[in-house]
């Protein structure tokens, strides 16, 4: 059985695995994404498995240039500037390496092994530290010139630009509805609805900005401000999903990432309520990511097995 390595470099977590050609995860490792030295961290995680494979797929936060094998000043990493990843990993591990955007990898993973298996037109959305998408159209992943197509986290969902994104732009979907953006949304809603006090409102008033898990936890406890934040999150996300569906006409929109998957009890009903209001021709079909937080990792493995999926044959030369 052919085996490959796969790694998923996220803003918060780094995962790596040895995966068989049928999608069996033979060994799985996790660590926190370091503040500096991401290539060294990947090598440490996988180097003792590299002699068992001939290739590795790397799913990473972007932006990137998959033709050159570099990350381009990624705003969700602490290591800035141009980061050469493919060449350095290839030299240190002695194996071929293909690079692809982590959300594109998630789409390939779910399309190959998960919720989108057997379909030809699929959109995968991930709500994590950031917000991204991968798209499969007519049975082919859409990549773009440098592999950065579908940066839907930077779709403008608020033309008034009340919140600035980590990339520097204003009004971007990611700035409102990602793990890093949700605390800013909570602060905005607290400012616009001073009548919604409760524990969360008092905490924000005192200068303590709650994290995303705290906001969802407060909503489950009935906190009025937290409930309004979740409702605003859901309305914005429904508008974003409807826009993406209008652009790509998918058979299925797959929702992944911990911000969504860990809070479906609060979000699914509201998304179902808002989506019809924004959708062109009825709301798109939705499904949770079957592979959970392993969707990008499995897509990276699929790309290592078939590099053409990532449009990255040049990376392995």
UniProtKB/TrEMBL annotation:
It is an enzyme of class 2 (transferase). One of its GO terms (molecular function) is UDP-N-acetylglucosamine 2-epimerase activity. The keyword Kinase applies. Pfam families: ROK. Its EC number is 2.7.1.1. Keywords: Kinase, Transferase. InterPro entries: ATPase_NBD, ROK. This is Hexokinase. The lineage of its organism: Archaea, Nitrososphaerota, Conexivisphaeria, Conexivisphaerales, Conexivisphaeraceae.
């Amino acid at each position: 059985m052919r085996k490959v390595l796969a790694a998923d470099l996220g803003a918060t977590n780094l995962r790596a695995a040895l995966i068989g050609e049928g999608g069996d995860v033979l060994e799985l490792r996790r660590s926190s994404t370091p503040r500096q030295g991401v290539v060294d961290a990947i090598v440490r995680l996988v180097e003792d498995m590299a002699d068992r494979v001939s290739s590795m797929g790397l799913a990473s936060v972007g932006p990137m240039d998959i033709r050159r094998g570099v990350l381009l000043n990624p705003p969700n990493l602490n290591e800035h500037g141009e980061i050469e990843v493919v060449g350095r990993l290839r030299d240190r591990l002695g194996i071929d390496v293909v690079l692809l955007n982590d959300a594109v990898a998630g789409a390939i993973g779910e399309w190959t092994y998960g919720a989108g298996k057997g379909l030809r037109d699929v959109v995968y959305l991930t709500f994590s530290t950031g917000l991204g998408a991968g798209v499969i159209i007519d049975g082919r992943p859409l990549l773009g010139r440098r592999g950065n197509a579908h940066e839907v986290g930077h779709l403008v969902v608020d033309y008034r630009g009340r919140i600035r994104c980590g990339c520097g732009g204003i009004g971007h979907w990611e700035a409102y509805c990602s793990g890093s953006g949700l605390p800013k949304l909570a602060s905005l809603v607290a400012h616009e609805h001073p009548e919604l006090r409760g524990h969360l409102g008092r905490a924000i008033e005192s200068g303590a900005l709650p994290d995303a898990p705290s906001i969802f936890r407060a909503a489950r406890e009935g906190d009025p401000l937290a409930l309004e934040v979740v409702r605003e999150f859901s309305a914005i996300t429904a508008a974003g999903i409807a826009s993406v569906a209008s652009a790509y006409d998918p058979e299925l929109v797959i929702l992944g990432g911990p911000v969504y998957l860990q809070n479906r009890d609060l979000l699914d009903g509201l998304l179902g309520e808002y989506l019809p209001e924004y959708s062109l021709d009825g709301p798109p079909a939705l499904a949770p990511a079957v592979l959970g937080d392993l969707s990008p990792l499995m897509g990276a493995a699929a790309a290592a097995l078939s590099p053409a999926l990532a449009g990255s044959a040049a990376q392995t030369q």
